[in-house]
Design brief:
Length: 96
């Protein structure tokens, strides 16, 4: 009888975890503040990993000279910003 009760308890806990998992994932995704690289100020851009004031200025200069970024990956067209910076920030960068 004890084994059956443990099995039922384990099943209930597992079902509860799977039921709550989507809500937990959504909450985590919402907790990540997105930065719109087409509109962000220097201060906002410096919230990205590896982006200090000088790189933030370059991003703004780039979009003013070339128009808005068409894809988030376009940030790598800015001098000095490469794959490493993109990878560190790809979940935080948006163009919308």
């Amino acid at each position: 009888m004890k084994k059956t009760a443990r099995l039922v308890s384990l099943c209930l806990v597992t079902a509860l975890v799977f039921a709550l998992l989507p809500a937990l994932v959504q909450a985590e995704e919402q907790a990540i503040e997105k930065i719109n690289i087409n509109q962000a100020s220097v201060e906002e851009l410096t919230q990205l990993r590896g982006i200090g004031p000088a790189y933030a200025e370059r991003i703004i200069e780039y979009r003013e000279s070339n128009g808005p970024f068409e894809r988030p990956e376009g940030i790598m067209n800015v001098r000095g910003i490469g794959q490493k910076t993109w990878t560190a920030n790809k979940d935080r960068i948006t163009i919308k």
